[in-house]
Structures are given as structure tokens and as C-alpha cells.
Amino acid sequence: MTRRPSGRLVSLLRGRSVHSAAMKFDLRHGWATVAVVALTGASAALLVSASHRASARAPSSSQSPTVSTKTQSAAAATVSIDAAITEEIRAAIARSGLAANVTAVVGDLSRDAVIVDLGGSRPMRPASNQKAITTGLAMMVLGDGFAFGTKLLLQGDRLTIVGDGDPSLGDPELLSGTVWKDAQGTMHTGLTPEQLVDQWARAVERLRMPRIREIVVDDRIFAREGAHPDWPRDQLDATYCVACWGINFHFNSLRFWLSPKDGKVAWRTQPSAPWLTVVNDATARSGKGAKQSAGIARAQGIDAYAIKGNLAKADGPYIVTMQDPPLFLGNLLASRLRTNGVDVGSVRLAAATDAPATGTAVGPTLSTPLASVVTRANTDSENLYAEALLKRAAAKATGRPGSWADGQDLMRTTLRAAIGSEVESFAIRDGSGMSKENRVTAMGMARWLLAMPRMLPDFNAYLQSFAEGGSSGTLKKRMDAVPDSLAKVWCKTGYIAGTSCLSGYVICANGRRFAMSVLCNDLKDSQVGKAKDLQDAVAAILARQPAR
């Protein structure tokens, strides 16, 4: 049952149909307080002004509107162009052989209007196109200046790690590109998760406390829901199925490296975790006929790992998800403190009955700008990032721990404000699109994309958070038929079994600006490539349209 939106949520959404000048988007990920700046890439500025819908007073019954012959001719030409685009796309769909599997809608940003509708009201699985909704929603609710922040507080002899749902905390992909300065002033590229946590550990050591009685990990910004119930149970140890927590760390996964040693298999992990339970039954046979079959699995429900198979030669990393990332971070901080001579007692999660954490901040707040999280969610299509954005937005909107239920209500309410009754055809289950039970329509997706220039103060940041055709993320090897001289394609891809989708923007060099959504469902494995080719063909058709 859909709950009535809270007054807090309504007030957050009220007044969002405002325009502002487009801003230059500079992607940076930084922990400035510890002189750590992650250079994760910078998007070239593509300034796209927000489109404004002209308002006009309706003529009264005593007035007759006057329409000039020139205006009538322009309107007729526009209808003709729209019909021509429709027929081009219809022909491309026919050539693909996927007519029964495809719905497609195109909107014109300059007119804030849908101009192509080919089956656009049919409910379809969106796969990761769902992220285009989640990220826009998060930008509206959390606001331009928002940054995730994870902090360490000291009260008496208790340390509390206070989480904010940051999906990027200790993300190895971001850490690998981090440029930072050590205490001696030497610059380094690449930061390990241990070095990140040591920013806190060293701050605690400087306090010269004889003992830390306990470390409490407060992850209550989100409800402790674990993996989404719709996600495939046999794939929960894969990184695209990592659960989302109030404290996420190291992409909620461990990296194992294996090597043969004295006839056995030796192992190490990143992050280093000497407290883990690891059952090592692997063999290290080499030579003729020896197979490389080693693998690592995590037991469901606990942080215990099994190494099995044969290791013919050193290999890694093997990436396996963690069972309890918040507690893992607490144990890692305790381990780093103990290694440096600090006596630490227990590590536990905050109880539901614990008072909100208070105390003196120790060390830096580990902070990530919203723009960095939105970009990784869209460009790299990271599910963890999308789920964290949905839950964090829900937490702000409701004042409760972020949950999928509140996220679903928030998304439905936000969609209704943006696309009206079209939302009634949507089924909303998660923020990333991993659930096969999600449903959207191409019409709804296109209308959402058309609404973003009106509803986001910085539409340009949203636009450039998507993968760029031929250049970045999941579109790096696509859109060969759309050279930069014609247009830039900024889109969200989407794939789960039987589903391939593409929704986003085509920004033409001649000033034309289109929103598009091409959703392909019920595909055989052999048809997925054809679906991608069709999506690229639709973008190319739009890129070739003449100036108006």
C-alpha cells in the first residue's frame, strides 16, 4: 500500500519547478580536511541552458486568438519534422527485427514536448535506466550543496563511527586515483583503505588515552535491510548485488590474493582483516595437467570465507562481498589502533535503543560530494551508489532511517510531480533497477528527462553525470555513428537478463536537444546486441536532425 507523503516530503518537493543558469560541472572527490583529493576524472564543460516553458494567458470567450500565416506554416513544418523522425525510428525498429520487444519515445527539450511515441505507454523493465530517476530525485531532495560525511566521535572512553550512507567510503576504484600529501609533505597517488582509516587512528593516538573501552558503529541512518528481497539469491556474493548499509566501506567487498607457498595456498586480503574466519581447503598443485580452479565463497549470513579448488599459479584479486560492512569498518579501526599500541576493548553496532551519538570529533570527517556519487551511479552504473542515494534521500524526506519502502514512496511522489498520471503505470521496487519487478514506461522516462531542466537547479550536473557516447563509462565503446561534430550523447544504459534499455539526452551541435528512451524487453541472448545497435541508431537519427 502506498503511504501518504509526509508534510516534510511535500515541503521538500514544493517549489522545485524553478530555473537557474547552467553551471560548469567539475567532478572531484575530496577529503580536504586531511589534504586528500581524489582525482577521479573531470568532465569537460558542456553548458546546456535549462529550457523554459513559455506561459501564455488563455484567451477569454470574448477573444479570438489571431494566428498568422507564418505561425501556421512553422507549426505545419514542425509536425512534418516530427512525423519524419517518427518514421525514421519506426524503420530502424523494423530493420532490427525487434518490433515486438521495443518501445521508444523522444522528447524535444526546446519545446518541452514529446515528439515521437512508439508504444510509449507499455510497462517495461527498465534495468539500470531506473538510476536516471533515482539520481535526479536525490539531486532534488538532497540539494546542490549536500555531501555525504562519515565522522568519528569521542565521548569518555567510547569511540563512535557515525555513518551517513556514503557508498564511496573506501571505494577501491576511487582510492586508486587519490592524490594525497603525507605528514612529511610528500605527494602520493593511490591510497589504501588502511591508510584512509589511519587518518582516524593517528588522531586517536595523539590523544594518548590509556584505553578505548569500546568502538560503536552507528549505521542507523539507514534501516538494516541487507540485500533487496527481489535480487537473485545465488548472486549475492557478486559486487553488483552488494547490500546497501548506513555505513558502506570498500564497496562492501573484500579482495583476496592467492599464492602457492610450500605446497599450500597462502592468502592475503585488502583491506587487511586478521580477525576474519577463513577456511582454506585449496591445493597448490602445479605442472603438467594442473588446473587453475581456485575460488573463494562467503557463507551466507556470516563473515566467514572458504578457499577451494587448485591454485596452479598466483592469482588475484578475487572479489567477494562482505556480510557486515559497518562492523567490518569498526573492526578495521580497532585493528589499526591495536597495531599501534592502543588498547581497544569491544566493537559493536549501535543498538536501536542507543541515544543519538554525541561527543567531540576526532580526526577528519570523510566527505564525498553528491555530484561524485551521482556520476559514479550513472556513468559506471554502480548499483550500490543508486541504492544509497535513494535511501539517503528517503532519510532526509522522512526523518526516519532510509529504507526501500520510504524510497519507493518518495520516488512515486516525485515522479507524480514530474510526469503526472503516467506514474500509475510504474512499479517501483529499488533504486538501481536490479529488481526484475520494476516497471516504467518509455513515455514516463522521456517525460522525466524533459522535466529535469525545470526541476533541477543544476541540470548540467545531472546531464554530465551520464556516460558519454564513445568516451566514458558504459557508453565508452558505443555511439560510433555519432561524432562529436554532430552531437554529444549522454545516456544511462541498462541491462539485466532479457532486458536492454537506453535513456538520456542527445545534445546536437546545431542547438537541437532531445530526450530519448528506448526500452527493449523479453530479449533472447542473441538479441541483446541488436537491441544496443537499435538504441545507438535512434541516437544517431536524432543527432542528424537539422537545426530548427
Question: Characteristics of this structure?
Answer:
Beta-lactamase, disordered N terminus, six-stranded antiparallel sheet, 548 residues, six-stranded mixed sheet
Describe the structure.
The structure is a single chain. With 548 residues, the chain is an alpha+beta fold. The protein has 3 domains: 78-143 and 371-543, 3-Layer(aba) Sandwich (Beta-lactamase), CATH 3.40.710.10; 147-227 and 324-368, D-tyrosyl-trna(Tyr) Deacylase, Chain: A (3-Layer(bba) Sandwich), CATH 3.50.80; 255-321, no CATH class. Helix content is 29%, strand content 23%. The chain has helices spanning 7-13, 69-96, 130-142, 172-175, 193-205, 325-339, 370-379, 383-398, 404-419, 442-455, 459-463, 528-543, and strands at residues 29-31, 36-38, 102-108, 113-118, 147-155, 158-162, 178-181, 187-189, 212-218, 253-261, 264-270, 277-280, 295-298, 304-308, 315-321, 344-349, 360-361, 366-369, 467-468, 487-496, 499-508, 513-520. The chain has a 6-stranded antiparallel sheet, with helices on both faces. Strand 3 and strand 4 form a beta hairpin. Helix 3 packs parallel to helix 8 (383-398). The longest helix has 28 residues, at 69-96. The chain is globular and about 75 Å long. The protein starts with 6 loop residues before the first helix and ends in a 5-residue tail after the last helix. Mean pLDDT is 87; it is low at 1-71.
SSE topology:
Elements: H1 7-13, E1 29-31, E2 36-38, H2 69-96, E3 102-108, E4 113-118, H3 130-142, E5 147-155, E6 158-162, H4 172-175, E7 178-181, E8 187-189, H5 193-205, E9 212-218, E10 253-261, E11 264-270, E12 277-280, E13 295-298, E14 304-308, E15 315-321, H6 325-339, E16 344-349, E17 360-361, E18 366-369, H7 370-379, H8 383-398, H9 404-419, H10 442-455, H11 459-463, E19 467-468, E20 487-496, E21 499-508, E22 513-520, H12 528-543
Parallel strand pairs: 6-9, 9-16, 12-14
Antiparallel strand pairs: 1-2, 2-7, 3-4, 3-22, 5-6, 5-17, 5-18, 7-8, 10-11, 10-15, 13-14, 19-20, 20-21, 21-22
Helix pairs in contact: 2-12, 3-7, 3-8, 3-10, 5-6, 7-8, 8-9
